[in-house]
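Lay summary. Proteins are chains of building blocks that fold into shapes, and those shapes determine what they do. In this project we predict the shape from the chain. Here is one chain we studied, written as its sequence of building blocks.
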Amino acid sequence: MILQNLHTYQYRNIEDISIECDESINCIIGKNGVGKTNLLDSIYFLAACKSNIITNDSLNVNSSKTAFLIQGNFIVKKKEYKIACSYDSIEKEKRIICNDKKYARFSDHIGLIPIIFICPADISLINGGGSERRKFIDTYISQYDTEYLQNLVAYHKILNQRNTILKQDKKIDYTYLEIIDSQLCEYAELIYAQRKAAISELEKITISYYQAISNTDECALQYDSQRNQQPFEQLLQKNFEKDSILGYTTAGVHRDDIIFLFNSGFLKHGGSQGQKKSFLLAIKFAQYQSLQEKKKQSPIILLDDLFDKLDSERTKKVLDIVDRQEFGQIFITDTDKALLETFFSQKKNSATFWKFEQGSIKKSK
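And here is the predicted shape, written in a compact code that computers can read:
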């Protein structure tokens, strides 16, 4: 799968930029704050129908404008896809168009363009709350399993209905609540089974990549779900009185989490910045490999500020992984051209360098 060209217009601090992309490795070099991350984020938007950084679309519009537009031409399994994403802050309307056809549901687009984004903000995956890790696993599974995404949407719709019922205090319709609970449990079981399988699979691949980057440490992934102890039906019954008081549902897959273990302890508390960055790279590379196998094509991989928090030894090991033939199209950003240029000049994969400055981007000699 290849992104042939990209046009990003009025997106965050980018005014108007077009680029004819290299089919292999694209190295985007520029000072901090020029918009390198935003350029990668615009590519991600074409695949995910949303920003990887700011989910509020109105905040992604250039501060002096009222709308943004992102366009990209992709080759997916020898077929061309022309994709356009736009948002109008006045009309408050987002449009996703593929080959001149507007999507009625954005979820129908998810998975067409498999993509992995690695950036410094990923540290929230380790240091943040459970919602960050649920978002991570849901985004990953949704790229290869459309039924999972539909089940997830249905689950949250029913969950909202249950919470509305719980807020009714003494006017609760218990017959209706029983029906809602039955439907909620049905979707919860499907989501739980998919998450459990996906996390188990990712753990094995993540360990392999982490050992390649940092062979002195050990890591593991643990699926933390209330369902591990009790069926969902029993959990809802057990927590009903508390839920009625609080006015929302306290048990279910919307409370799931993933625990990252490191040398028999918690990575969040026991890992250094370099070890955390190494783990994040390992789990994202694991996602890439798994998606590649499931989708029968190579996802696009976006590497923003790749070497942040890495020492020279880990940097070399990460670059060695990136240089492998199994990786497809890659976009890398950095402030310094020298390291990347020196590395790729010695390797089998050539790279195209782009210089990003003063709102424009052009090939660098």
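What the prediction tells us: The longest helix spans residues 174-213.
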